[in-house]
Design a protein that fits this description.
Layout lengths: L2 H26 L3 E11 L8 E6 L3 E2 L6 H4 L7 E12 L5 E9 L9 E9 L5 E4 L4 E3 L3 H7 L4 E8 L2 E9 L2 E2 L3
Antiparallel strand pairs: 1-2, 1-9, 2-8, 3-7, 4-5, 4-6, 6-7, 9-10, 10-11
Protein backbone atom coordinates (compact mmCIF):
# COMPACT_ATOMS: atom_id res chain seq x y z
CA UNK A 1 0.00 0.00 0.00
CA UNK A 2 1.05 3.52 -0.61
CA UNK A 3 1.70 5.96 2.20
CA UNK A 4 -1.47 7.97 1.41
CA UNK A 5 -3.63 4.85 1.71
CA UNK A 6 -2.08 3.97 5.09
CA UNK A 7 -2.72 7.50 6.36
CA UNK A 8 -6.30 7.38 5.18
CA UNK A 9 -6.77 3.98 6.79
CA UNK A 10 -5.14 5.20 10.02
CA UNK A 11 -7.68 8.04 10.10
CA UNK A 12 -10.80 6.08 9.12
CA UNK A 13 -10.44 3.12 11.49
CA UNK A 14 -10.42 5.18 14.75
CA UNK A 15 -13.30 7.33 13.47
CA UNK A 16 -15.41 4.22 12.75
CA UNK A 17 -14.60 2.80 16.19
CA UNK A 18 -15.56 6.05 17.96
CA UNK A 19 -18.82 6.34 15.98
CA UNK A 20 -19.69 2.72 16.83
CA UNK A 21 -19.05 3.32 20.54
CA UNK A 22 -21.21 6.46 20.53
CA UNK A 23 -24.07 4.61 18.81
CA UNK A 24 -23.91 1.71 21.30
CA UNK A 25 -23.83 4.11 24.27
CA UNK A 26 -26.75 6.12 22.88
CA UNK A 27 -28.89 3.03 22.33
CA UNK A 28 -28.39 2.05 25.97
CA UNK A 29 -29.89 5.38 27.07
CA UNK A 30 -33.19 4.91 25.26
CA UNK A 31 -36.23 3.13 26.61
CA UNK A 32 -39.04 3.71 29.05
CA UNK A 33 -38.01 3.63 32.71
CA UNK A 34 -40.41 1.55 34.79
CA UNK A 35 -40.35 1.07 38.56
CA UNK A 36 -41.02 -2.50 39.69
CA UNK A 37 -42.16 -3.48 43.15
CA UNK A 38 -40.18 -6.39 44.59
CA UNK A 39 -41.83 -9.16 46.57
CA UNK A 40 -39.04 -10.21 48.86
CA UNK A 41 -35.37 -10.64 48.20
CA UNK A 42 -33.69 -14.02 48.54
CA UNK A 43 -30.27 -13.49 50.10
CA UNK A 44 -27.10 -14.93 48.56
CA UNK A 45 -26.22 -18.51 49.46
CA UNK A 46 -23.19 -20.74 49.29
CA UNK A 47 -24.20 -22.40 46.01
CA UNK A 48 -25.16 -19.32 43.99
CA UNK A 49 -22.47 -16.98 45.18
CA UNK A 50 -23.06 -13.27 45.69
CA UNK A 51 -26.28 -13.05 43.68
CA UNK A 52 -29.64 -12.19 45.17
CA UNK A 53 -32.91 -13.28 43.61
CA UNK A 54 -35.45 -10.51 43.17
CA UNK A 55 -39.14 -11.36 42.81
CA UNK A 56 -41.38 -8.80 41.13
CA UNK A 57 -45.07 -8.11 41.66
CA UNK A 58 -45.56 -7.86 37.86
CA UNK A 59 -44.33 -11.45 37.48
CA UNK A 60 -47.33 -12.94 39.27
CA UNK A 61 -49.97 -13.72 36.66
CA UNK A 62 -53.33 -14.44 38.22
CA UNK A 63 -56.57 -15.43 36.53
CA UNK A 64 -57.94 -11.87 36.83
CA UNK A 65 -55.37 -10.45 34.39
CA UNK A 66 -56.86 -9.97 30.89
CA UNK A 67 -55.41 -12.51 28.48
CA UNK A 68 -55.07 -15.17 31.19
CA UNK A 69 -57.21 -17.64 29.24
CA UNK A 70 -54.82 -17.44 26.26
CA UNK A 71 -51.81 -18.54 28.34
CA UNK A 72 -53.51 -20.68 30.99
CA UNK A 73 -52.73 -23.98 29.28
CA UNK A 74 -49.39 -23.07 27.70
CA UNK A 75 -46.50 -25.30 28.74
CA UNK A 76 -43.89 -23.89 31.09
CA UNK A 77 -40.97 -22.28 29.30
CA UNK A 78 -43.14 -20.67 26.62
CA UNK A 79 -42.65 -17.00 25.77
CA UNK A 80 -45.38 -14.60 26.89
CA UNK A 81 -45.67 -10.83 26.68
CA UNK A 82 -46.69 -8.75 29.68
CA UNK A 83 -48.27 -5.37 29.09
CA UNK A 84 -47.26 -3.03 31.91
CA UNK A 85 -48.77 0.32 32.85
CA UNK A 86 -48.22 2.75 35.73
CA UNK A 87 -50.22 1.75 38.78
CA UNK A 88 -51.64 3.81 41.61
CA UNK A 89 -49.18 2.71 44.33
CA UNK A 90 -45.82 4.48 44.64
CA UNK A 91 -42.47 3.68 46.21
CA UNK A 92 -41.08 5.85 49.01
CA UNK A 93 -39.43 8.10 46.39
CA UNK A 94 -42.79 8.83 44.73
CA UNK A 95 -42.17 6.65 41.65
CA UNK A 96 -45.31 4.81 40.50
CA UNK A 97 -45.02 1.03 40.53
CA UNK A 98 -45.86 -0.43 37.14
CA UNK A 99 -48.40 -3.26 37.11
CA UNK A 100 -49.35 -6.02 34.68
CA UNK A 101 -52.46 -4.93 32.80
CA UNK A 102 -52.60 -7.95 30.44
CA UNK A 103 -50.70 -11.01 29.25
CA UNK A 104 -50.58 -12.37 25.69
CA UNK A 105 -48.76 -14.81 23.43
CA UNK A 106 -47.64 -11.95 21.18
CA UNK A 107 -46.76 -8.29 21.79
CA UNK A 108 -49.65 -5.85 22.16
CA UNK A 109 -49.18 -2.15 21.42
CA UNK A 110 -51.36 0.02 23.69
CA UNK A 111 -50.71 3.73 24.23
CA UNK A 112 -49.21 4.55 27.65
CA UNK A 113 -48.00 0.99 28.23
CA UNK A 114 -44.86 -1.04 27.61
CA UNK A 115 -44.51 -4.62 26.47
CA UNK A 116 -42.11 -7.01 28.24
CA UNK A 117 -41.05 -10.38 26.88
CA UNK A 118 -41.03 -13.06 29.61
CA UNK A 119 -40.87 -16.82 30.07
CA UNK A 120 -43.75 -18.72 31.64
CA UNK A 121 -42.86 -20.67 34.80
CA UNK A 122 -44.45 -22.09 37.95
CA UNK A 123 -45.12 -19.54 40.63
CA UNK A 124 -45.90 -19.77 44.33
CA UNK A 125 -48.78 -22.10 45.16
CA UNK A 126 -48.97 -23.53 41.63
CA UNK A 127 -49.94 -20.21 40.07
CA UNK A 128 -48.43 -19.03 36.79
CA UNK A 129 -45.43 -16.73 36.96
CA UNK A 130 -43.37 -14.81 34.39
CA UNK A 131 -39.56 -14.78 34.44
CA UNK A 132 -38.36 -11.36 33.23
CA UNK A 133 -34.60 -12.07 32.89
CA UNK A 134 -33.67 -9.45 35.52
CA UNK A 135 -34.31 -11.51 38.63
CA UNK A 136 -30.68 -12.01 39.64
CA UNK A 137 -28.52 -9.16 40.89
CA UNK A 138 -24.85 -9.36 41.86
CA UNK A 139 -24.01 -8.04 45.34
CA UNK A 140 -20.45 -6.82 45.76
CA UNK A 141 -19.95 -7.53 49.44
CA UNK A 142 -21.77 -8.65 52.59
CA UNK A 143 -21.98 -5.05 53.84
CA UNK A 144 -24.15 -4.20 50.82
CA UNK A 145 -26.63 -6.91 51.74
CA UNK A 146 -26.83 -5.46 55.25
CA UNK A 147 -27.83 -2.13 53.69
CA UNK A 148 -30.82 -3.83 52.06
CA UNK A 149 -32.24 -5.20 55.31
CA UNK A 150 -35.45 -3.55 56.51
CA UNK A 151 -35.59 -1.36 53.38
CA UNK A 152 -38.23 -1.00 50.70
CA UNK A 153 -36.38 -2.46 47.68
CA UNK A 154 -37.64 -1.56 44.24
CA UNK A 155 -36.03 -1.77 40.82
CA UNK A 156 -36.04 0.68 37.98
CA UNK A 157 -35.68 -1.04 34.62
CA UNK A 158 -35.58 0.21 31.06
CA UNK A 159 -37.92 -1.28 28.49
CA UNK A 160 -37.25 -0.95 24.79
CA UNK A 161 -38.93 -3.06 22.14
CA UNK A 162 -40.32 -5.63 24.64
CA UNK A 163 -36.82 -6.13 26.10
CA UNK A 164 -36.29 -5.25 29.75
CA UNK A 165 -32.95 -4.48 31.36
CA UNK A 166 -31.94 -3.58 34.89
CA UNK A 167 -31.34 0.16 35.26
CA UNK A 168 -30.90 0.74 38.99
CA UNK A 169 -31.85 -0.44 42.48
CA UNK A 170 -33.84 1.86 44.77
CA UNK A 171 -33.72 1.50 48.55
CA UNK A 172 -36.56 3.40 50.22
CA UNK A 173 -37.08 5.21 46.90
CA UNK A 174 -33.48 6.45 46.65
CA UNK A 175 -30.95 5.28 44.06
CA UNK A 176 -28.51 2.83 45.63
CA UNK A 177 -24.92 3.10 44.40
CA UNK A 178 -23.77 -0.27 45.72
Amino acid sequence: METKQWRLLAFIVPVVVVVALVVVAALGNFGTVVTLETRGVDPPDLFRGDYVDLRYAVSAIDSQVPGWSSIERLPLGETVYLTLQPGTQRDLGGNPYWVTSRVDQSPVDIAGTVCVKATLRDGPGGARDAKLSIEQYFIQKDEDMEEWRDKDVSVQAKVRGCTISMYRILLDGVHWDG
